Amino acid sequence: MDKNLKEQILRASGVNVLKCMRCGKCSGTCPSYDEMEYHPHQFVYMVEKGDIEKLMNSASLYKCLTCFACVERCPRNVEPAKVVEAVRLAAIRQQGNNHLTPAMIPDMIDEDIPQQALVTAFRKYTK
Amino acid sequence: METFTYYPGCTLRTKAKDLDTYARSSAEALGIALEEPSDWQCCGGAYTTAKDEIATKLSAVRTLNAAKELDRPLITVCSACHNVIKQTNYDISRDEEMASKVNNYLKLAEPYNGETKVYHYLEMLRDVIGFDNLASKVTNPFKGKKIAAYYGCLLLRPSKALAMDDPENPTIMEDFIKAIGGTPVIYAQRNECCGGYITMEDKAQAAKRSGAVMDSAKDQGADMIITACPLCLYNLKKNSGSDLPVYYFTELLAEALGLKEDNNG
Questions:
Q1: What DSSP state is assigned to residue B153?
Q2: Which member of B51, B78, B159 has the closest CB to residue A11?
Q3: Hey, are the CB atoms on B200 and A109 less than 8 Å from each other?
Q4: Integer Cα distance of A94 and B57 in angstroms
Q5: Residue ranges per domain, chain A?
Q6: What CATH number is given for A3-96 in this structure?
Q7: Tell me: the pLDDT tens digits for B236-250?
C-alpha cells in the first residue's frame, strides 16, 4: 500500500473516510451507478484501505458527473464526490495521463454543443 | 435604476445567446441594470473541490473581486457559472489556506475573502424584485400552461455553499412559473442530473439521463420544460429523444413581460 498516495488523496479531498457508515446511499443516488465499475461508497472504503491503484486505473473515474447528489445526500456528510475527484486528479496529473486531448474533440461535438460542455470536460479530464 | 454586476460566462456569449439576451432585456424592464465587469474569464464550467487546486479557482475569484471593487452584488444566470462562483466564494471565506494562496497569487489591491454577495438571476427575481412585484408586471401570462421546472444538479447542490433553496424540495422555479401566470408541474426527476458533459464521450448515458428527466416531466403532464443551464438544454433537446419543448427560463420571462415575440404557444 502506498501510504503517501493515501495521504495525498485524504489531504486533497479534505474527506474523513472514517465517518462513512457504509449505508450505500451515495451509490444508490448516483446517476452513473450502472456505468461504474467502482461506485462512490467503494471509492470511500477502498481509499480507507489504501487500495487506490485499482481506482486510479478504472474508467469509473471519468463517469462521475459532478452532480453533487452523493455530497448532498450522505447522512454522515462524508462527501464521496470529493474522494472521486482527488483520485481522478492523482491519475490525470501524471504526465501523459490526460483522459481527453484536443485532437479527440472534433469527433465528439456537433454544431449545437455548448462551450460549457467542452470547458467542463477539459477541467475534469485533463491537467 | 439599481445596478448590479453581471457575469454572463462563456456560453451565454456564444451558443446560449437567448439565455443572455432575455435576461438583460427583462432585468432592464424590471428596473435593474446589469453591467459586466470590464474584464472576465470563463469560470471553467465545474468547480474543482480538491483543496490543493488553486489555479482552477482564480477566474471565479477575479470576477467576485471585480464585483467587490464596484461595491455591487454579482448576478449569474448560467447554472454552471453560478455553481462555480458560489462554491469558490463559500470556500474562500472559510478556508484560510486557500484564501492565503489565492491572495498571494493575485496580489489584489485588497485581499479577497468572500465579501461579494452572489445572486443567481432567479434569486434576484425572488429576493430583490420579489415574485409578487414581478407578477404585477406580467402583461402576457402563460395562462393554462403546465410548465416543468428543471433544476438539474448545479443550481441547488451542494446546498450549504449555494444556499439557494431546499435541495430536495425546491420552490424558487415553481414560484417563478406562478409569477408569470403558468402552472408548475412537480415531477420526480426535477433535481437529478441530465448527464452533463458525459455527452462528449458517452451518448448512451446522456440519452438515458436526459430521457429519464423528460419522460418524468411528460408523465406529469408538462407542456414544456424550463432550465437555466445551456448544457441541460442541449442534453434535453438533443439526447433525450423526447419532443417536449425546452426553453430557457429567461425566454419565458421576457415573453411574459411582453418583450419577446410569442412563439411558445
A1: T
A2: B51
A3: yes
A4: 21
A5: 3-96, 99-127
A6: 1.10.1060.10
A7: 999 999 999 999 999
